Amino acid sequence: MKGFTGPIYSYLAAVLVSMVLVSLLLALFRIPIFETYTLLITGSLGSMTKLGDTLMVSVPLIIASASLVITFKAGLWNIGVEGQIIAGAVAASFIARELQMPTQILLPAMIGAGFLGGAFWGLLVGLLKIRGGVNEIFGGLGLDFVATGLVVYLVIGPWSRKGIASTSGTEPFHENAWFPTVEGFRLSPLAVSVSLLVVLMVIFVFNRTQFGLKLRSIGLNPNSSYRFGIPTSRYILTALVLGGAVAGLAGVTQVASIHHRLVPSISGGYGFLGILVVLLAGYRPFLVIPIAFFFSMIAIGSIQWQLRLGLHSSLGGVFQGTLVLSVVLISAMRLLRQRREKHVKTEE
Amino acid sequence: MNPETLAIVISYATPLVFAVIGETITEKAGVVNLSLDGSMLLSAMTGFAVSFTTGNVVLGLMAGGLISSNIALVIAFSSIRLRLNQIAVGIVLTLFAAKLSAFLGQDFVRKPGPSVQDLHIPVLGDIPGIGPILFQQNLLVYSSYILVGFFFWFIFYTRQGLNLQAVGERPEAAYARGIDVNKLRYFYTALGGFLVGLGGAAFSLDVKLGWSDGHIANFGWIALAIVIFGGWHPIRAALGCYLFGLLQLVALKLQPLFPQLSQVLPIIPFPLMIMTLVFINHRKIQYLILRNNVFGRFITGRAPSALGESFQRL
Amino acid sequence: SSSGDIDSDSFKLGLILVGPQNDHGWSQAHFEGASYAVNKTGGELITIDKVNPADSPNVTVPQIVDDMISQGANLIVATSDDMKDGVLEAAAAHPDTPMIWASGDTAWSDGEDYRSDLKSLGNVMGKMEYGKMIAGCAAALQSDTGNISYLGPLINAETRRLVSSTYLGAKYCWETVKGKSVSDLKFKVTWIGFWFNIPGVTQDPTVVVNDFIASGSDVIISGIDTTEAIVVAGQAADSGKAVWAIPYDYEGACSEAAAVCLGVPYFNWGPSYHKIAKTVIDGNFKASFEWIGPDWDDMNNHDSSAIGFMKGDGLTSDNSKSLDEFIEKLAKGDLNLWKGPLNYQDGSAFLPDGKEASDKDIWYLSMLLEGIEGASTTE
Amino acid sequence: MSLKLLNIRKSFGTILANDDISVEIGQGEIHGLLGENGAGKSTLVNIISGSLTSDSGTISLDGKYLDMSSPSDAIEAGIGILHQEPLVFLPFSIVDNFLAGLPKSRDFDRKLLQDDVRKISQEYGFDLDPNALASNLTVGERQQLEIARLLWMGARVLILDEPTTAISETQRENLFTTIKLLAANGMSVIFVSHKLDEIQSICDRVTVLRKGSLIDTPTLPCPTSELVNLMFGEYTQDIPQNQSVIGENLLVLDGICVKDANSVIEEVHCKFSEGEIIGLAGLEGAGQRILLRGIAGLTKCYRGRIFFKEKEITNQSYKWYMENGFHYLPADREGEGLIQGLTITEHFALAGNQSQTIDWNKAAQLAEDKLREYSIRGTVTSKPEDLSGGNQQRLLLALMPDNLSVLSMEHPTRGLDIESAEWIWKELLERSKNGTTIIFSSSDIDELINFSDRILVCFSGTIIGNLLSKETTPYEIGSLIGGIHS
Ligand SMILES: Nc1ncnc2c1ncn2[C@@H]1O[C@H](COP(=O)(O)OP(=O)(O)OP(=O)(O)O)[C@@H](O)[C@H]1O
Ligand SMILES: Nc1ncnc2c1ncn2[C@@H]1O[C@H](COP(=O)(O)OP(=O)(O)OP(=O)(O)O)[C@@H](O)[C@H]1O
Ligand SMILES: [Mg+2]
Ligand SMILES: [Mg+2]
Fold first, then answer.
1. pLDDT confidence bin for B266, thresholds 50/70/90
2. Per residue in C86-128, pLDDT tens?
3. Which of A143, A348, C147, D110 is deepest in the core (most CB within 10 A)?
4. D361 at the A interface (CB within 8 A)?
């Protein structure tokens, strides 16, 4: 499946359908519909602080989605992205905890470590795939849980707070290991820049480089690609390692700009959410930014649903799920109709 | 560990047995239903909500089964009719159903409600040793034994079971023998989904009574892993579930000795799944699979050849 | 907004909960306490629940505090030990807004974590030690097997002192009231790793309690935020086992399985929150550390007692009577269980004979007491 | 009992695969179905066996009209088909293979069936252990399994679609014995093959198809030459010959053996010169494809040695081959040649081994030029799936590097119209003139004779003929393809 492909009107039709479905749900629960939607906007964009928070949520989501674009384009269902985010976070936390250094050195070291940590976790998925014959879907899924297990072990064991055994998290890092923020906001320009840079890099790789073109061709047709002289296994491994490395950066931003410590749920589910974003974007990296931003608006705006309307916190997720489900199903039905019409024509 | 503790292993693993058997059947037919975690959540919620409202546990179980069976049908429809990737649809449905369960279940959180009643089987339950472990449980647990036995018999010893395997193994050959491949796939995906839903409902009506957000404790993902660990064989899969239950308890027993490790033991199904996959993909092992008969099939297990592939007739 | 009077109708209390507000436990107790306060003062309660990284990855405490303040909140209450870092950050960012971190110790000038710089951050906590002692006593009174289990959350100073208090209550009633030998009393704690169950991260409390029962415990005492202990005990009783449970935190928790409930030690946050809200409205809020004991005249008085113990249907009338006598002794001050000689779990001395523990000794208890089975730390 | 086909017609889009076919096959008759690749044989038997529905025409068995919409309808009517790759379930036991898809009317009983399997095995001299796993059987035994199953299901008409391609000589003998026995027991057998000797040795009559039409249905035995003529048409014109300049000895194959999952070629000894054009004749699956892949370095030889310019290159990587001017063009242009979803410009960017970053303007310019040069109907943003077969082939040629040493190519003109085919050959001859050695396979004897200097004939995984095209005749090639040494 290519995620969403096709003209903009059918995209809009799907968005409309999902809004209607969500509205029906709201009506069913006697929730004011119009207010719900306006709160979503004001709650996520209504002030500089809120805009900043929305941007900060979009950072890991954008990075995770960018990572997924890399592997999806190479035809790989990298469900291991969650684990790779976690591995990046663990590696960055290790640096933050172990190295006493000025922030100018520490932050780049954390970024580098997160990159390597994620890459290592991606490498495991890749080796399992090309050496062990384990499909990346199950290899990745398994390693997601192994990564969580690793964090739980660290948090309750070697990295636990003194006298405390709680899975809640490690001691906060020294402030040198925090991404600097804009005075008075939680917005970290560094984190936002990392996410934009990553997307730009992915766009560059797929628009401008041989490497990206080769990954795409492997994703589209591994047989032909091999005939063209592309060493497919090596590229698959590279894609998973690179995807993992990028995902690792999401882990870095999570520990260094959001939590300032390692917590078991450090990935925040952004890996799985990223899969939805990428499906909606039809694997197109530039669409990742607006869609991830919109998802972040839902995530942040829906806090207001809870605070102002007393709505349940899961409504935002229901909205996102409905949206993706309708877009994916509607575009597939459109394709089916097209195939039918073509078929009828050739029969005539 | 005393018999009573082992009895907990059995009852704790029971929802997992339902889900694993369900998913095994679905995958035997060649379809992967990746939405298990979401499906089980939604059916756990539905099962409890219906039982709570009607006071009838059986109705709750059925409702849980039906809702999950409908999710499974969405996957079947998207892959068979719309030719969408099963994995993609599965993931979307997982997240969607999980959130929906939290939203729809908000009025039922932590309410005391009906639960499945224990029923000790007179003679069997008094057998020293295994009696208290296996037969001082409830009807749901006994049904899970019957289910495992039934599907073992059904898959390997009946006409319909053979057709089920045929569809997942080589759909074009199945079609050539007059089997309606896609109809069976719809059916077994829905049936598998129903059992998965029973598992979800069993969780909230028997293992962890009531409803709370994220109630089923990753059981969906664990079930997916155990289907593989179980080598797509109902009995081995059930043993996998009990092993998982046992590990949970071992983890508790180890807490005073290895407090850090004990917390991590519950993830063991996942490395086991990966190791199983490496194992069955190993060339020498594959040789074993091909050479050995019943024993080899049990020990090695293998995925249905056409798992995840769609079928279109000529 | 901190100085000067506030029109009580426009008063807004922002409440940040770690779990669901209907958890029949810790969070619900806070929610009802805050509702009580706002009912009394007038004004509005703004609540957000499930503020923890597992349930709400996009939501942090400072972010919520910002938002509540921009909505006009005059007092903000953060209700979890787990919110420490966020609360400190928010208090530093909004030095003029009165805030309460329930269960913390940052306003305790004698405490180890005193933050003199955070002038508007106060702490409130009920002396649950008493509630737990009563719970322990009730457990020992009712237990036939002398096998009592404690469902522990995570390990820290707070949980160590609560488990220890429970044990002290149990030991006293086992020895003194029932006249049995302490060597026949088995008191075991198993920790799940957090205040409530997080799938894949914590141990599953349902499994833990089932295991307690299978290994012969007939009374389960809960120390976690949610109700698994009593639910599982109820289920076991349904299948014919003689098992009782003592839930925690929330007055109504017994309703999950009334027949097996021996009682519940609970927090009654209402009076404390009301008092603080009034100081905010009157413009004389002062951050302080409040560790408030029960109203010994009537522990279950909603308008005055910070903690209480509500007896459950499961307690026999004889035991109920004995328990009342035990409570009476505590109330009169005749009985101080935190008094030497007391040893730590490893046998080393905690308090010499006759010495009473200070508040600091208890608050910062570094190890479980002798006689308790289970981990004290992970080191 | 007799099977009667009347006016069967079937088309796929514009291709008329069966054009008004009428045949009658009697009881106990072994009826051959003969024709070159793509003649329409499989289409016809798929219609008879219910896998395909015809556009028009009727099928009747014993005068009863059959209305079949699926293979199970055919089986019910008594018509069974054995596919080239027997459709068995490998992980199942033999008994279970019998039982899968069993109609409701039959009892599901493994015990009884074991006896049945043994009985049938005995009757037809099969060696089938009812409890053995199908995955442990040879292809020949799998065929026996399928035949036994079809008999057990009550087939009275048995169709065998190219059953001898993948089995050994002894297995073939066994199969033929079986077929004769079946016919003697009153079964009608339809035997599809390209192999003339097989047809001659077991068939009573043969229907010859060419390009979808029924040419004739002679009774056998008849002179093999006549069959060759019926299959390929009469060659009366004098065909202009290729005039390549043959240079130095370039490539030497010293007894190489290559195989993959489906096919094998063994013991190939051959020398190719610079600028030489070599045609590979043979049936599908006789080994041409795997030989071409071996020559291009895409599949490694497991025995034998390859020398290039007098240096041994046997174990070099595919990358090395590509860098040294080897190139392979597959028959499956969309599946293994081009990449669906990439534009033509992107194909050129991928093929041109340029620097790591791509200059799209340059790539588009290159694509633009090549489109013009190779007269490809399409734009630089077209994708392979938008192009016709001829244009896909032109694109594949356009994507090749300029100075090739060895071009290894399957079916250069399959599916192309005359004009495109001529254009392709003009291009290929040009390259050969510039020194490229071209090795190609083809099922078109015209093409082989017309354009090669030498023709190698593959049969069942070996080379059985090495002919100078100037000296050979279509008849000689056709006989060798059918495995007959004249
Ligand atoms: N499903 C299909 N769709 C489109 N074209 C088809 C299809 N099946 C066959 N054809 C075309 O119909 C023609 C006859 O094909 P068929 O497979 O019957 O030939 P054949 O005689 O069996 O050839 P071979 O000897 O190679 O097996 C060919 O041109 C083929 O490309
Ligand atoms: N799958 C397809 N998708 C889109 N367009 C197609 C497709 N197949 C064919 N076309 C369009 O139809 C045109 C005619 O295609 P077709 O394959 O029938 O050509 P043709 O006449 O057989 O030519 P050739 O001899 O080169 O094969 C193509 O040029 C192309 O533009
Ligand atoms: Mg054919
Ligand atoms: Mg064409």
1. confident
2. 999 999 999 999 999 999 999 999 999 999 999 999 999 999 9
3. A143
4. no
Task: Say if B72 falls within a structural domain.
Answer: yes
More confidently predicted of D66 and C8: D66
- Give the pLDDT confidence of C152-167 residue by residue, as tens digits: 999 999 999 999 999 9
CB atoms within 10 A of CB B106: 19
Does D15 sit in the ligand 1 pocket, CB within 6 Å? yes
CATH of D1-230, one of 3.40.50.720, 3.40.309.10, 3.40.50.300, 2.30.30.240: 3.40.50.300
Contacts of A12 (CB under 8 A, 6+ apart): none
C213 touches chain B (CB under 8 A): yes
For residue range D279-322, what is the model confidence (pLDDT) as tens digits?
Answer: 999 877 788 999 999 999 999 999 999 999 989 999 999 999 99
Identify whether B169 is part of a domain: yes
Strands C99-102 and C75-78: parallel
DSSP state letters, D404-432: -SEEEEE-TTTT--HHHHHHHHHHHHHHH
Helix axes B269-281, B283-291, angle to 10 degrees: 80
In angstroms, rounded to a whole number, what is the distance separating the alpha carbons of residues D81 and D45? 8
D459 and D282 Cβ atoms separated by less than 8 Å: yes
C121-126 β-sheet, strand order: C44-48, C12-16, C75-78, C99-102, C121-126, C289-292
Distance (Å, rounded) from C-alpha C216 to C-alpha C228?
Answer: 18
What are the start and end residues of each CATH 3.40.50.300 domain in chain D?
A: 1-230, 246-480
Given A145, A186, A270, which is nearest C62 (Cβ)? A186
Q: Determine if ligand 1 sits within 6 Å of the CB of residue D239.
A: no
Q: Angle CA(C343)–CA(C344)–CA(C350) in degrees, nearest 5?
A: 55
pLDDT of residue B181: 93
Q: Is there a domain that residue B53 lies in?
A: yes
Bridge partners of residue D158, in order along the sequence: D80, D189
Domain-embedded: residue B302? no
> What would the CATH number be for the domain defined by D246-480?
3.40.50.300
Domains, chain A: 57-312 (1.10.3470)
Of B2, B12, B212, the CB nearest to C207: B12
| Digit-coded pLDDT (tens) for A32-65 | 889 999 999 999 999 998 999 999 999 999 999 9
From its phi and psi, is residue B55 left (phi > 0), alpha (psi between -120 and 50) or beta?
Answer: left
Q: Is A66 helix (H, G, I), strand (E, B) or coil?
A: helix
pLDDT greater than 90 at residue D249: no
